[in-house]
Amino acid sequence: MPDTPTSRLGLFKSLPDGSELVNYTQDLGQNWDKIDLAAGFQACTSTTRPSSPYNGKAIRETDTARTYLHNGSSPASGGWVQIPNSASTFNADLNLTSGGQLIVGGSPSDANLAVINSTTSATLISGRLPGDTVSRWFVNTDGNTGWGPGGSTFADVTLARTGTATLTLTGSLTVTGNLSASGIGQKQFVRKTADETLTSNATLQNDDHLSAAVAANATYTFEVVLFTIEASGDFVGDIKTAFTIPANSTLHMMGTGAHVTDLSSGTSSNAEWIGRPSQTTSPTQTLSYGVGTSQTALVLKGIIITGGTSGTLQLQWAQNVSDASGLTIKAGSWMVAERVA
Fold this sequence. Notes:
Elements: H1 24-38, E1 42-44, E2 58-61, E3 67-70, E4 80-83, E5 102-104, E6 113-115, E7 123-127, E8 137-140, E9 145-147, E10 157-163, E11 166-170, E12 187-191, E13 196-198, E14 205-214, E15 219-230, E16 239-244, E17 250-258, E18 271-279, E19 287-289, E20 296-305, E21 311-318, E22 327-329, E23 334-339
Parallel strand pairs: 1-2, 5-6
Antiparallel strand pairs: 2-3, 3-4, 7-8, 8-9, 9-10, 10-11, 12-23, 13-22, 14-21, 15-20, 15-22, 15-23, 16-19, 16-21, 17-18, 17-20
């Protein structure tokens, strides 16, 4: 009986005691053929892979140009692991360990995808469908991003850095959720969620709801709408309004409402337009308007330019004259402030 063949290539081995004559075909020719077949990557097709590969067997498919290594698992057909090469497409998931990198161009970045391109306009990543000659989405090396319909039509929406701390959108933006800003363009809206009443009190006090935070060295426009009513028909108390502002701020404001002395019955009255420009003290000068037993309204508008101190633009109000007939600012009154510079 001959000795046990080799485990991987099945090479024939004669007995080691010299009792067998050397058979060229069996001992040499067939063994050399097996060695020759196993040298390097064995050529086959995607349908003629070796049926009994050893662990570590390497093949190259001539019809796909893909290369594989067998991991020794069973069944044999499921143990082929693709080895990436530049002559073929990769037909499997590429699973990097956490913190692993895909590096292009020798980039020193520690990002998972690290690329060095020769120009800022070189495309870093893009997406197309079969048949597209132009990318539907792309990101250039400088971060400029574009979206388009694909096919042969170039991007019609782009987002690009056009200057220091500046992004520019070319195209239209539709927002289906909330849009907020903390700098220029920031808009704050508050409304009274409950009635608030003062009786026999002509001392200005902060409104419970209507205020807005203002940043230092900024400019805001604002508007306040107050729905007011008096408890009884003496038409004495009425309302006065003012604002507190941060130090080193300047406020220009105006108001529109019922004339204090003209409103003596119902809601019929001459209107009064009062301006209070260049207010630098806090609280500011007051604006006073008439209030009746039927619900009336007044509007305050203005602009505030802050200095080096941030703080709060706070509405204050009280009865214009202390009176036992209570003054109420109704729920639903509101204030809006928008940063414009």
